[in-house]
Amino acid sequence: xxxxxxxxxxxxxxxxxxxxxxxxxxxxxxxxxxxxxxxxxxxxxxxxxxxxxxxxxxxxxxxxxxxxxxxxxxxxxxxxxxxxxxxxxxxxxxxxxxxxxxxxxxxxxxxxxxxxxxxxxxxxxxxxxxxxxxxxxxxxxxxxxxxxxxxxxxxxxxxxxxxxxxxxxxxxxxxxxxxxxxxxxxxxxxxxxx
Length: 194
Fold this sequence. Notes:
Helix content is 47%, strand content 19%. By secondary structure, it is an alpha+beta fold. It has 2 domains: 60 residues; 116 residues, Cytidine Deaminase, domain 2, CATH 3.40.140.10.
């Protein structure tokens, strides 16, 4: 199977709506006839998970395209939806940057760092370097909490202050830092913590 993120929209759509091959249909029929047939059930689960991942990828692309065409500051719900889809389900911490132009439209979204269940090492120097490389005027950063709690840790708060200071030195504005936990998203800007 192809890696979903590298597939074209046409390939993704075709696979999403494709009728399962006869072998898959036979396995599904067997699963229905003998509900305890774990091999057939596993094949069905794999097919469903693949299709859900494809649907998620298509939604992420559509939201990113919309964010490229309008100010994300005037569409915070769209950013929240994108963040939920991108990392709300991930079982390890990831740190993301959304690079914005002078009109606060999305230039690019990038996963900068990947960590463990409870920690991600974030290097402000690398965040600044990546923002400069994309000629970003401003930035939204985000990370997820697989624990399910959006409560920012002391380290999260300190990182936000460090990033804000480092970005200000090169005239890039940190608009927000979001924490994603499942379907919940906490905005440092909305909480007055930025």
